Amino acid sequence: MCLGDLDMSATSAGTDPKMDARDRGRIVKILERNWQTEMRGFHTYEILAKRETDPSRRAAFRTLAHAEQHHAQLWADRIRALGGSDPVYHGPKTGEADTIANRAGGVGMALRRLELDESRDIAKYAKQMKELGDAPSIRILEQALEDEREHYRTLSGLIRNRRPLPHPSPELAKKALDELLAAREEEHPKAAGWIGDAIYGINDGLGAIFGIVSGVSGATLGNSKFVIIAGMVGMIASALSMGSGAYLAAKSEREIYEAEFSREREAVEFNEAEAREVLSLSYQIRGLPPKEADRFVEHLAKDKSQFVRALAQERLNTTEDGLRKPWTSAISGALSTAIGATIPVIPFFFLSGYPAVIVAAVVSLLAHFAVGAAKSLITIRSWWASGLEMTFVGAVEGIVTYFIGIAIGRISGAGL
Question: Which of 15, 68, 261, 316 is least enclosed by beta carbons within 10 angstroms?
């Protein structure tokens, strides 16, 4: 039975003009009791699903909970259509999951109790078919009865293991996967390649040293000697800082992946059933039919190493081949930072004073635009917008540091 096949027009139909207030009140009371029953069933199956360790039974409970919640929504809509107020659930938040009968007999007794409850609901709804006298409500009853009979057969199959269990919908699969991964750490960002390290290295070096050059130029009135010394020392410091940072970041990403790989290997060893469910639900969310997802996971599970790699890939959204190499990242970051940091200093090897300051500013701003445009290679922004933004930021940085340098120079007397 597909819940999408329910006749939604039944809940939105208006009241019979011949129905008096007394009949409406009687029907609303019956529908409110139906709503309470469905909500109690929803909470029961929801709690049982959270507590269940067997993947097949857990999936069945989630599907049943979703159906009960949908029935409750239909009854609530019809109650409002009849002029009633929104119903409020008065039962326990765990439904019938914590009753003495369920706890005393374990899962087997709980399933039989639920099977009995479903049979009583079937009888109750069948009796209401003759008593309600409200056509829209009867249409809901017809569909609800069909679902309840399916629920009874599902529970019977769970107890006696004699029929396949229902597969969850994509929405339920997504919910189930979220619950399974809720206790784990937040997903780490996907590793960038050496191109990203290079672009951001040039950006960092250019921005940092352009600020230093501007400030020292303002403080010393463009004295080439001081600017070159400050710029080259800053370039070395920035390159080492970027290189070491890139190395440590890439190394940490690899260590995180290895730790996650180890955790997934343990998960396969100690609870392979749950690991299979995680992977199957992931593929179902992407559109793979449940049977095909299960079949594919079954194929992967034949090679434990391959199965663990697939789980780790779902966890971190990357593979071992996609991780950065620490030394490659370090060299790329350090060299690119050095290149970017050298650009603002070059004019001072040939010029001095204000001409050197002006040429350095023009060259640096052009370089800012070029680096900003290059960033579009690893972002979704247009090259010209990214370039102009970078140029604007560089211009503001240069102007601010230049005037700060003038102020410092006057205070210290370095520019005299």
Answer: 15
pLDDT tens readout for residues 76-96: 888 888 888 888 888 888 877
Q: What is the residue type of 382?
A: S
- 341 Cβ neighbours under 8 A, 6+ residues apart: 205, 206, 208, 209, 231, 234, 235, 238, 239
| Backbone torsions φ then ψ of 336, nearest 5 degrees | -65, -40
Q: How far apart are CA 52 and CA 117, in angstroms?
A: 20
Is 201 in contact with 340 (CB distance < 8 Å)?
yes
Distance (Å, rounded) from C-alpha 126 to C-alpha 142? 9
Q: Is the pLDDT of residue 240 over 50?
A: yes
The answer to whether residue 287 scores a pLDDT higher than 50 is yes
Comparison of pLDDT for 74 and 266, the residue scoring more: 74
Enter the tokens of residue 227.
């600017």
pLDDT digits (tens, 9 = 90+) for 262-282: 777 777 777 777 778 778 888
Long-range contacts of 304-312 (CB under 8 A, 24+ apart): 304/268, 307/268, 307/275, 307/279, 308/261, 308/264, 308/265, 308/268, 309/261, 310/279, 311/264, 311/267, 311/268, 311/275, 311/278, 311/279, 312/257, 312/260, 312/261, 312/264
The dihedrals phi and psi of 165, each to the nearest 5 degrees, come to -85, 155
| Residue 46 CB contacts under 8 Å (≥ 6 apart), including other chains | 61, 62, 65, 95
The answer to whether residue 190 scores a pLDDT higher than 60 is no
- DSSP code, position 346: G
